[in-house]
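Friendly challenge for the regulars: who can give me the C-alpha cells for this chain first? No prize, just bragging rights.
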Amino acid sequence: MLPNLHASLPSLRRAELAVAQVVLAQPDAVVGDSIAQLAAKAEVSEPTVVRFCRAVGCTGFQDFKLRLAQHLAASAARAQAATNAGLALVRDLAPTDSVASATEKVMDRSIGALVRLRDTLDAVALEQAARRLIAAQRVEIIGVGASGSVAVDAHHKLFRLLPSVAASSDAHMQTAAAATLGPGDVMLTISKTGTSAEILDAAIIAREGGACVIAITAARGPLAKLADVLLAVEVDEDTAVHTPMASRLAQLALVDALTVAVGLLSPPETNQRLARIKTALRGRHRITGPEDVPSTLRGDPLPVKDAS
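First reply, four minutes later:
Bragging rights claimed.
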C-alpha cells in the first residue's frame, strides 16, 4: 500500500496530495482515524478523502483503511521474520555510517527488494508478456538512466531467443523507434517510477501505431496505466541522493524471469537458434591453457629481431 501510494503521488490532485502526505507521515495513526479526523489533519473536506481513496485504487475510505492495516501488519510480520532469521532491518543510509554498516544496509535492501518482487510478482502477467514477445514481429526495449542499463541487459538476453530485438537509452532514438512500430510489434518499457517523460512519450506513440506496450515499472505510475501488460516492481527506495540500486536489481531479476518464461514457451526451433549462437561463440574462446597465452602476457622475453 505505502509504496503504491508513493508511486501515485505525481498523478494526485493538490488536495488529494495533502491527504497522501498525512498518510505517509502517520500511517499507524491513520488506521484508527475516522474520515472526519483524517480530513481535519489534511485540512481538506471529507469528499476529498473519498476521492483520494478511489484515486489510489480503493473503493472507499473503509477499504483504504483495511488495505493500509493489512500492509502495516504484513510489514511488521516481515520485519519479525527477518529478525528471527538474523537479518538486520533495512534502514536508510546516513552520513555517519561506516563503510561496513553502509554495506550491510545496501545488501539488506537488495535482499528485501528481491524477496518482495518474488512475493508480489504476477505470474499470469509474466506469462502474458512472454507470449506477446514470442509472437512479436519486432521488439523495441527502452529505458533511461539506471533503467537504461537494464534495457541493454534485456536486449543482451532476449535477442538470443527472439528474431528481431533492439534496445535504446537515447530519447530521440526511442521516439523514432516508437514511430516505426505497428500492430504485431512490442515495446518493452522499463522505468522505476513510470514518470519519465521520454518513456511515456515513446509508449504513447507506440500505442497509437497499434503496438503492444509491456511495462516493467511501479504499479501506480502513469506508465502502468498506459501499458497493455504490467509487470510491477515496487521498491521503497529514496533516489533523492543516489541513483536507484535495489530497484535496478529487482528490474534485472524480473528481466531474467521474463527471459526464462520466453525460453520455456518458445517453439522448438528456438533451441536450434541457441545452438548456432553457442557454436559461433565457441571459436571466440581460444585460450585453453598456459601455452595459448601470448608471450607478451606471460612475461616471456620478446623475440630478438634478426639484424641481418
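Residues 85-90 have pLDDT under 50 and may be disordered. Residues 2-87 form a domain with the Arc Repressor Mutant, subunit A fold (CATH 1.10.10.10). Your move, everyone else.
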